[in-house]
Amino acid sequence: MTEKLSDETRGPLLEPLFAAGWQMVEGRDAIEKTFVFKDFVEAFGWMARVAIWAEKWDHHPEWSNVYKTVEVVLSTHDVGGLSALDAKLARKMDSLAE
Ligand SMILES: C[C@H](O)[C@H](O)[C@H]1CNC2=NC(N)=NC(=O)C2=N1
């Protein structure tokens, strides 16, 4: 069952993501990161690969794409804030962008 991150669990899960360029969304329990790729094909290819994992895990990003830039916000709507699924999807996004 998905649960909102507790005070004890959020530090260890989120600190590595902050070090990797993620940050808290102002006024919301959500994380955001802007990914910039070489061109549109790279950006959209990455989105397609992420989408397969998102669907597999039934956990979907809020994102927008303009040419080679993808702005991502992750939060768990079912719990009204961050859950471990957001950290898991963020790590997958980072590894697929490498
Ligand atoms: C019914 C379905 O499983 C839920 O609505 C899933 C789908 N994808 C989701 N994605 C995200 N980011 N948060 C959710 O709470 C969520 N819930």
From TrEMBL:
This is Putative pterin-4-alpha-carbinolamine dehydratase. It catalyses: (4aS,6R)-4a-hydroxy-L-erythro-5,6,7,8-tetrahydrobiopterin = (6R)-L-erythro-6,7-dihydrobiopterin + H2O. GO terms for molecular function: 4-alpha-hydroxytetrahydrobiopterin dehydratase activity. It comes from Roseobacter sinensis. Gene3D superfamilies: Transcriptional coactivator/pterin dehydratase. It is an enzyme of class 4 (lyase). Transmembrane segments: none annotated. Its EC number is 4.2.1.96.
